[in-house]
UniProtKB/TrEMBL annotation:
Record domain Activator of Hsp90 ATPase homologue 1/2-like C-terminal: where: 12-131
Species of origin: Chitinophaga filiformis (Myxococcus filiformis)
Pfam families linked: AHSA1
Name of the molecule in the record: SRPBCC domain-containing protein
Lineage: Bacteria, Pseudomonadati, Bacteroidota, Chitinophagia, Chitinophagales
Family named by the database record: Belongs to the AHA1 family.
Amino acid sequence: MVAIEHLLQIRASQAKVYEALTTQEGLGAVWTSKLLVKPEPGFVNEFNWGEDYITKMQILELRPGEKVLWECTESDPEWVGTFICFKILPGKEGFTTVILKHYNWQEVTDYYRSCNYHWAMFLLSLKKYLEEGTGMPYVWK
């Protein structure tokens, strides 16, 4: 099995990072503007990318200020059955460390490589949202 992993330092509290990763407002400002999200274990978050392309993530675990864990239940076939974990850790001098791990990939493919890049862009959007007030989500036209 293969995993995508990224580490990012964000000048924001652990509570603010957690809120951005678990709420309609936060994920809408960071990932995609059309979504249905509830911060409840067992709930299936829906992220809409247009033209009937929806990614569904079941919330497996929520630890406020510490961890968010999703399982992909519907999306591109290479994503289904993968897990996305955000670990939120205390950093130094006013920073919070975010470790993203997208794991249980079957193999390294071109789609995996593309997703690796897009996760980095997602984290940049998260950083911009929390530090500057505006993220870079996919926006419906």
